[in-house]
Structures are given as C-alpha cells and as structure tokens.
Amino acid sequence: MYNIAVLGAGIIGVSTALNIQKQLPSARVKIISEKFGQETTSWGAGGLFRPTAKFIRGVPEETIRKWSRTGWEFYSSLAVSDKAKEAGMQIVSGYILSQTKVENPVYKDVVYTFHELSRESKLKLGFGHYNYAYMVTTVIATVREYLPWLFERFKENGGQTEQRRIDDLNELVGVYDVVVNCTGFGSRTLFGDTSMFPVRGHLLRVKAPWIKNFVFTEDDAYLIPNGDLLVVGGCRQENNFNLNIESKDREGILERCLKIFPALKGAVIDHEWVGLRPTRFPIRIEKEVLQLKKGPLKVVHNYGHGANGISMSWGTSKDAAELVKEALLGSKL
Prior knowledge:
Blueprint: E1 3-7, H1 11-23, E2 28-33, H2 61-79, H3 84-87, E3 89-98, E4 113-116, H4 119-125, E5 132-141, H5 143-156, E6 160-163, E7 178-181, H6 187-190, E8 197-207, E9 214-217, E10 222-226, E11 229-233, E12 237-238, H7 247-260, E13 268-292, E14 295-305, H8 309-329
Parallel strand pairs: 1-2, 1-7, 2-6, 3-9, 7-14
Antiparallel strand pairs: 3-5, 4-5, 8-11, 8-12, 8-13, 9-10, 10-11, 13-14
Helix pairs in contact: 1-5, 1-8, 2-8
C-alpha cells in the first residue's frame, strides 16, 4: 500500500488528493497543511468559472482548453445535480464587459451560453460606455461550501489530515512514497521557487439580494453572486505582500463598481477579505526526484494558478494525479 502526502489544503491540494484517491483507490493519502478551511487563500475566492488565458501565461492554449473542459464537466455535473446546494454550485448568467473584442475565449465552447449583446441591449442595461458586452451563463462555486464538501468526499474515501508546518522536506523521506506539492506561495520557501510571486486581491462580500447576475470587466471591477452574498472586487497588485485591509482599496473598489453598476448602491458590507494569489508563469505541474540529505524524495508539483485557481483546479489536479501514478508505477501506463 502506497503512502502519499499532499502538502496544502486549499482547492488545489484537496482536489489533487481526491483525484489521487480515484487513480489509486488502495493508497493511503494524507493532506498535511499548516492552514485549513477559512485560513486558506482559496476561501476568499469569488469562484466564477471563467478561465482567462492571459493570466495563465506559458501554458499551451490546447492544455488550458483541456483543463477547462475537464473542470467544466465536473462543476456543471454538480450544478445540475441534487448535490448542487451542498457542493456550493450555482448556475448564474452575467455580463463580460470589455473595450476590446473578446476573441474565442477558452471558456466559450464549454459554458452553457456565450453571445455578444447588441448595441441596443448594451444601452438598455447601462453598459453603453463599453465597446463590447457579452452575456455568459456559467457556474459559480461558493468556496465556503465547496471546499468543505470536497474535504468530506476526501475523508469518506479514507483520507487523513495532519495540521502542521513542514519546514524541512527531509522529514518526509522514507515516510511517503510520493509527496505532492500544492503549497502555492509556500513553494517559494519550501522548494526554493523564486519564480513564484503574489498578486494581492481585496474583495468585499456584501448583502445585495436584488443583484442576481455577475458583471465582470477588464477594469478591476466585478460583481459575483456567492450564495446569499455578493462578491464585489477587486484589485490585482503584483508583488504586494500586504495582508491588511486598506480603506483606499475598499473605496476604489466601490467607486469603480458603482460607476459600472449603480444598482449596487445600498448594499451592506458583510465582511472583507485580502489574500495573496499564488502566481507563477507557467503553472507548475511536473514530477521530479529530489536528492536530499536523508535520501531521494519523489515529488509531484501542482501550484501557481493565481486568479484561476478555482477554474483550473480540477483539470490540473487530474493531471497531477496521473503524474503521481506514473511516479509510483512507471511511465508506461
């Protein structure tokens, strides 16, 4: 029986652990992480399925489309099932607003609907100051429900957890047959990956039950329904390590969003979130053998998704699980 450790308990880590269980049902899989649940970066994500190739640089478009299809099959099947509520999946229509034409986005052929709005429709909706507007019907994962749901499936399959910080990989040599690295930004220190960088995000979750549609723009302004709350964002601040809530960011977000969608006026802030999206170009999904002081350690990496963590998580996790199988059983499978 193989012993496998997955480092990291965010969306990427738990999704990878579940896919390993599917690939290797007899293996013992343990998630080891310093942070779980609402302490993870994943917890604050808006969860809109809208993979964006320009934020997944260095990965062939064919691969991004494959990951998108794989993720969509999983999310959409949940969204139309009797598990939708408990898994935090909801089908939502909304608007993508842009000053430049959106040419064949990677999600176009997988989501439920995607079409450009006429000039008349744009004006009626109050989006006339954008050159292009598209109506999209897709899925939103409310992470505060989805992540615990994933975790329950992992535990039902016999998965184990251990809450601790790993500072030295030598601790894992001889204990685990394969270690899967889903530590996100932690890869910078634990694995010495200096190509990792943070993209700081600031989101508000507000009470605005009258807003049912998402609105997404290229101007760091978006609204995303999230269960009984509405996500209002945001910002993308590269290499900013500040985890404090800054009033100037809040004011900027509200100003931009109210300008685009005046119906937001009157919304009551429920809570705010600041997080560092762990970003790398390209996303790292590969296997290697590290030669450590205590001996060799087989490692499979799956990290660096940045703002596409939810959209890409299931597709990349499936590939990472295949690499774990290869690392254990050989590549001629």
